């Protein structure tokens, strides 16, 4: 399908249908992405102020066969927000940031797609509620992008992925029609679930313009523990033990490998490290409890039980907000340390929980057949989501291994797929992983995806090049 | 679109591609449905033993343009399982009942679509886990139908609807291709979510043949309370209070009106009633707690707090399994009592929680303009899901009001829609509510549904006449 670029003439015609200053020449900030892998093609960006404006823009693109790339906070890690060529129109939702309404008694709020996640947290907190989606980029990521990529993060164990937090959507479909689906219902069985189709479609089936989101009661108290554990297998037993003892209160269960703490020491030496000699594996556990339970006592009970059965040999339970924050800083700064070290290849994978103890040593062994590496394997163990990232040995650089990058990725992804896993757990497909979709995707699913895409976006204008392999 | 009936010649040709005794002449049990509203057209039923057989059947129907109606336990309440005319092929999954695998350490199991819900409960219980989907027909409803209709039931407040309990699906799409989507992953962002598209599509986009389902830890202990409350508004305040005090432990929060208890007294007098003179409104609360919490004490704390603030004036907390069962029998037998009284019109609606106190009196007032009725309003208040059912006054029959049935339904559904609600909360559309889809459905959503249906099922063979209005 050949698309028309968003030329000056196109911008001129479209501008006449929109309020002043809706279209601008693209600024450099829209052309970069966090991985530094792609550079966007310059041209025009639309900055609409209303859903009606979005509809006008999409309709015009559909009629003229012009590609359209929706843009949220620009924090995506798979290039879904960047169009390297073809000069499509960028559509930034950054002016549509209103919290339209808050319904504390319903545990719900309605917010526009351009709202920044941290602002949604604040809006929920203002009515003593919790919006639990939480991830490193929450100060800049916007709701529309977070939903379009079905973002994950640290609280999915308890509260689910982004899609699980959505009651209703408003969206502009690829023909420019507005879908008013902003219901605030916990049950609604009236036809196909368009909501879940748009969530995770990464802007290829329409533009999310607003969402009704689920809120939750804020826990009365939270507790944080950092427990050393001998192996990934014991980490999983510890997770099961924690579930038995602490039930639904566990909001995060993060696996950390010594390699990550060593990287912190190397690149961010000011960060307080909990152990002089870190254990090979540890888990960061966060719980949020109701008024009847003291979270510190609950974590102490867990630790005692884990010690007794050899699931942990050493542990720290935060005795203050500061200590809890210190533990979290370690986990949260590992990605930054990784960035400073410079990975050769990073992998955002998910596995069935029970195969993880087998996966990790097998992946190490297979990679060792290629070369020697430092491997930082960490992530959201409670969800089976590992960030399995491969780095050069000290004294070598990522450039030294550039020729091995594809082999490394294929090695990790082949094993992940063979063990029933996913090669994109929480980051999505974007432009980075379309080849993986071809290699690992179920052919029937791919055919269905193409049929749905053609049916809803026959001209192929929505985020061309993303998600669906050519 | 004109479909070919499943004639004897069709059955003969198809039989040659299948193991012996896969096709049979339809037995009467496949031609009836619980509401007694439709009678199926006779012809042939296929009873496949494997996913491969299902694929053969669907492919043959696609090639010959023969309609195909998937059939689970036959318990659907909106006629989705019945084809009144056109003599399509019925496809019963009743021979595909295997629990393929159980993964206790992953809190997951994989089961075929024909498995009966109660058997899945047992398979989960055998490994000390809980599969929480629970509804009146669980002794005969089958997993495929429950997922195709996105069933709700009594535990959705805590555990979600059927769609929230699914990790992966295996399905045969309308062209006869098998989608192998039986992943057991908590995070998987690799393309459009076909799973959520098939769930709730009521067999119009393919046949679910197996599913990987989420299991949960079994609560250490459960507690049940029946609390009288002055009004729907105080019932909602009581729900909020319960959430504050009991957190995520609340698995059911059911509203009961005196009318339902009076119907029980009238039709099922042997059922033990908790009060000599029942209150106008009461709520049935079920909680499931971890080892650290005594559920009876927790409910006593809630009741004391509710008493103090006038949210309840009288209450019973079950002191034994038997008492808990007695409370549940009241709730569970109300639909049977309704059936014996005979409703003029029943409504399965959902509303935003905060409008319910306004909805109920307004609906009563509007119906009073049509005639005098007895109204039994009950249901899953925690989910905003009401069963708002309209009955004749004593001495009159439903036949006396037959001419008012459409007006009653329109009155209730118009008000529901105007207040942001859904005219099908948990039962689905089937053949009963396709007109409602036209009247209340969002036109953009309807157009997208039609486009998706045409793309995936161009011959229109899958469950013709269900969900999508002509």
UniProtKB/TrEMBL annotation, chains A, B:
GO terms for biological process: respiratory electron transport chain. Residues 37-218 form the FAD-binding PCMH-type domain. The keyword Flavoprotein applies. Keywords: FAD, Flavoprotein. It comes from the Bacteria. It holds the Pfam family FAD_binding_4. InterPro entries: FAD-bd_oxidored_4_C (IPR004113), FAD-bd_PCMH (IPR016166), FAD-bd_PCMH-like_sf (IPR036318), FAD-bd_PCMH_sub2 (IPR016169), FAD-linked_Oxase-like_C (IPR016164), FAD-oxidored/transferase_4 (IPR051264), Oxid_FAD_bind_N (IPR006094), Vanillyl_alc_oxidase_C-sub2 (IPR016171). Its cofactor is FAD. GO terms for molecular function: catalytic activity; FAD binding. Belongs to the FAD-binding oxidoreductase/transferase type 4 family. PANTHER family: BLL6224 PROTEIN, D-2-HYDROXYGLUTARATE DEHYDROGENASE, MITOCHONDRIAL. This is FAD/FMN-containing dehydrogenase. The lineage of its organism: Bacteria, Pseudomonadati, Pseudomonadota, Alphaproteobacteria, Rhodobacterales.
């Amino acid at each position: 399908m050949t698309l028309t670029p968003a030329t000056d003439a196109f911008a001129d015609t479209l501008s006449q249908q929109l309020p002043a200053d809706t279209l601008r020449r693209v600024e450099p900030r829209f052309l970069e992405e966090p991985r530094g892998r792609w550079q966007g093609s310059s041209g025009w960006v639309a900055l609409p102020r209303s859903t009606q404006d979005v509809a006008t823009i999409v309709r015009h693109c559909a009629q003229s066969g012009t590609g359209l790339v929706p843009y949220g906070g620009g924090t995506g890690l798979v290039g879904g927000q960047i169009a390297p060529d073809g000069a499509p129109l960028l559509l930034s939702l950054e002016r549509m940031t209103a919290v339209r309404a808050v319904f504390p008694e319903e545990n719900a709020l309605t917010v526009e797609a351009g709202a920044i996640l941290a602002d949604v947290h604040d809006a929920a907190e203002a009515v003593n509620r919790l919006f639990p989606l939480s991830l490193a980029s929450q100060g800049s990521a916007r709701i529309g992008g977070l939903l379009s990529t079905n973002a994950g993060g640290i609280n999915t164990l308890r509260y689910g992925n982004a899609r699980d937090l959505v009651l209703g959507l408003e969206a502009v479909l690829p023909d420019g029609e507005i879908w008013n689906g902003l219901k605030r219902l916990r049950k609604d069985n009236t036809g196909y679930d368009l909501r879940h189709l748009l969530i995770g479609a990464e802007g290829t089936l329409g533009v999310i313009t607003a969402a009704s989101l689920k809120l939750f009661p804020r826990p009365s108290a939270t507790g944080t523990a950092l427990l050393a554990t001998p192996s990934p297998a014991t980490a999983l037993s510890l997770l099961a033990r924690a579930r038995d003892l602490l039930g639904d209160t566990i909001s995060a269960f993060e696996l950390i490998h010594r390699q990550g703490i060593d990287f912190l020491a190397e690149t961010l030496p000011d960060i307080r490290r909990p152990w002089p000699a870190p254990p090979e594996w540890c888990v960061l556990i966060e719980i949020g409890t109701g008024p009847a339970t003291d979270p510190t006592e609950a974590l102490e009970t867990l630790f005692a039980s884990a010690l007794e059965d050899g699931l942990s040999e050493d542990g720290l339970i935060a005795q203050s907000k500061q200590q809890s924050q210190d533990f979290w800083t370690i986990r949260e700064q590992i990605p930054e340390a990784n960035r400073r070290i410079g990975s050769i290849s990073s992998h955002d994978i998910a596995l069935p929980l029970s195969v993880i103890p087998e996966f990790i040593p097998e992946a190490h062994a297979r990679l060792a057949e290629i070369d020697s590496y430092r491997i930082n394997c960490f992530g959201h163990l409670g969800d089976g989501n590992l960030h399995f990232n491969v780095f050069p040995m000290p004294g070598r650089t990522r450039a030294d291994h550039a020729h091995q990058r594809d082999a490394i990725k294929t090695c990790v992804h082949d094993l992940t797929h063979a063990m029933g896993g996913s090669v994109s757990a929480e980051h999505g497909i974007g432009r980075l992983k379309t080849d993986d979709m071809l290699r690992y995707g179920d052919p029937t699913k791919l055919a269905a995806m193409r049929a749905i895409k053609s049916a809803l976006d026959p001209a192929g204008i929505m985020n061309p090049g993303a998600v669906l392999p050519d």
